[in-house]
Design a protein that fits this description.
Layout lengths: L17 E7 L2 E11 L2 E9 L5 E10 L5 E6 L5 E7 L2 E7 L7 E6 L1
Antiparallel strand pairs: 1-2, 1-8, 2-3, 3-4, 4-5, 5-6, 6-7, 7-8
Amino acid sequence: MPVATDLPASAPSLDVRGLWLGTADGRSLKITIDQQGGDAFAGVAELQLEDGTWAALPLKGTVDEGSKAITFSQVGGEGAFSGSVSGMRASGTFVMNTGHVPKKWSVVR
């Protein structure tokens, strides 16, 4: 489910494209970043819900090469993730609704 974006055509500063697998608040998380231009990227986060079903969240975000900080948010929703990238790993905190207590997420590729 690609996300239509207007990403810059420049080469990624810190390449985060690809498939990332891990957990979010103890539930399965799959992030597919299929578009990146410069520091901006887009893709889809698939999160397993408490009832066992999956939610697909189109996302857009940025990554900073110097600090390795990564932030992305749900397109058309309130889901927001922040954290850092270290080699083949990324982790941080997220909220699915504004004002909720942040939960932990962690992925590898």
